[in-house]
Amino acid sequence: MIIVTTDKIDGKDIKESLGIVKGEIVQSKNFGRDFMAGMKTIVGGEIKGYTEMIREARQIATKRMVDEAEKLDADAIVGVRYGSSAVMQGAAEIIVYGTAVKLK
Prior knowledge:
The protein has helices at 31-43, 48-71; strands spanning 2-3, 14-28, 76-88, 91-103. It has 2 helices and 4 strands; from the N terminus they run ββααββ. The relative contact order is 0.33. The mean pLDDT is 87. Strands 1-3-4-2 form a 4-stranded mixed β-sheet. The protein is of the alpha+beta class. Helices cover 36% and strands 41% of the residues.
């Protein structure tokens, strides 16, 4: 599956737009990560446990989007965008969306 943030794919022609596909996940922090994050805020720096949590959530959301596109028999997803938000204390939502297309 070709996944791009642009509306076109270099060297490829889009034959048909199949519609919007998306993937989403709401991921919560575990107590260990939360405790270590609290400690890290005292001294500053990257909170690696949260970085890894967001990375994993992004991968899951992307796979869900690709799964939707595959059900439509898409060759690619164009115009891909990611978004995130805090849905409650200790939990974040990651969403990814784009347009599934058939290529010539």
